[in-house]
Amino acid sequence: MSAEATNPGAHSRRRGRPRIDLRRLGRAALLGPAARDRLPDAIGHVAEAHRAHHPDADLAILRKAYVLAESSHRGQFRKSGEPYITHPLAVTLILAELGAETTTLTASLLHDTVEDTEVTLDQVRSEFGAEVCYLVDGVTKLEKVDYGAAAEPETFRKMLVATGNDVRVMSIKLADRLHNMRTLGVMRPEKQARIAKVTRDVLIPLAERLGVQALKTELEDLVFAILHPKEYERTRALIADNAGASDALAATAEDFKAVLRDAGIPAEVLIRPRHFVSVHRARRKRGEMRGTDFGRLLVLVGEDADCYGVLGELHTCFTPVISEFKDFIAAPKFNLYQSLHTAVAGTDGAVTEVLIRTHQMHKVAEAGVIALGNPYVPLEPVEGAEPADGERADPTRPGWLSRLLEWQQSTPDPDTFWTSLRADLAQDREITVFRADGGMLGLPVGASCVDAAYAQYGDSAHACIGARVNGRLATLSTVLSDGDTVHLLLAQDSASGPSPDWLDHARTPAARIAITAWLEANPEGTKVPAAAPRRPAPVTADRRAAANAVVDLPDATVRLAGCCTPVPPDAVTGFAVRGGVVTVHREKCPAVARMRALDREPIAVSWGDAAECRVTLIAESFGRPRLLADLTEAIATEGAAIVSATVEPPSEQRVRHTYTLQLPDAAGLPALMRAMRDVPGVYDVSRTQHPAATA
Q: Is pTM beyond 0.90 here?
């Protein structure tokens, strides 16, 4: 398959943005005559593209880098037969069209010199400075002679670590891979497939996460053509058969322009043809394709407020498809992307998708982090603005990259790293959850409480016994949603460890690596330590509490209701039942409402002098070793006697304990409940509220 056959050139050319047009031929002009006082003709395209974004750029360093690259690569040829210098020139042209600054372009011209020529890093550092040297070193591959089969994963590890300090390293790598993919047709089919799979699994997700959509979309099309040639040909034929599809979009675009002109909103309306993979996905989703399905309309305005003005006008003058509306301006994507997405239906029922953004948003949407320029240049602080919090403060070091750099340190094995990296990058969407202390955690979609625990506590999460999600008890397997608040509960027992079942719920490599490492180090599982000597709890059976409630009814026997177990100083009321017995309930007991509904006459009740009382408490907890012993000890320490105790079978790691207790003094009840709540694993203790039968 030739490079030309895999390049969906003409269809995907995007009109109206000549500065960011990556559907041009990747091969730059070869050597030509050049005077001493100007750039060689070979990099004239680069200089033109660079000056379009940076009019005041000093091109002298580019000339110097080109001269070194050309002389170093002289005599080397690509497999296509072209002089090798055409490759670094093409890579530099790609970055120049995206708006990369001069240092990045200098490093891209030199990116293969240390790897493939006699040029050394020390020479690059002495002639071009530490920044250019760092970028060149970051994209230089490790030698197979030294690393063998681990060379590729270890090269990517090295590159990602370098990207953590300077995102321009990955920008150069992405442009390098794009040009290699454009010219992959000269390779053997099996090598084409291998390179395409790595591009699909690693480079395309990285381009998406860094927001470089212009590179990502073309890489997707090139991979699609190699790995799915039949589907690619079918899609290409579909696009060719609908060559006039843009006419429907053009008519709608004119209607948009008229509406916005009448509203006084300066705007540019452009047609954005879908790239091949996008058309393929749309066809699978919608079945029969209409003319407007082959592209979108892009509306560019000057200010953020104008985006919402355009949205209002379009929704007023056309029929909006509400389910298609998304506001990525108020809530930007994790890869810096901002835009309003909507869709409107025409009179014939055809739906047109619309993107609304400012010119600056469009630049970032296409070029992502490349549009941010030099990350080493401090931005001017905005007067009165609060500094951004946490890892979001530096957009060139997003949360996903920070997490990736953390977990890779725990995976010295290249195969484990390579597998984990692909799994991590396959999760291309992110959610934000809030911690109980007000901090935030960035997690991939589908992450569970297990992932949140390891993201917040690292290896200390081995002792996690449960969580509260939005204030409610949840199992560790609970899948989190964007905006959830998570309070993770840790056991104080250092012997606690994760269950093998946690691996079924872990989505992040950090969690899976930590759990697997603990399980391998502890094949016998969690050992329950021997119980320490403790004083026996005064468990008493068949003791009856002397009811110290006084009722205004001669010779009546007073009984405290078991459904609400009132104790002083609860507000109470009584009701006469059979046998001359008065049952005393707390005022808020549901049984009181039922008695009154039956027109039963309440009897006044007061508390006598006796302080001793009986109460039933329910302890909700997460199951763990020695929990019952620790609860019994806490009760005994507070001087309460256990009349009876019931432990229900565990359900989803949760255990419910019911204790009927005899207290020497009702005033000690709050302290007793606090002591029980302080037992590790116990998340709530409450008075019983069992429904009572109507007397």
A: no
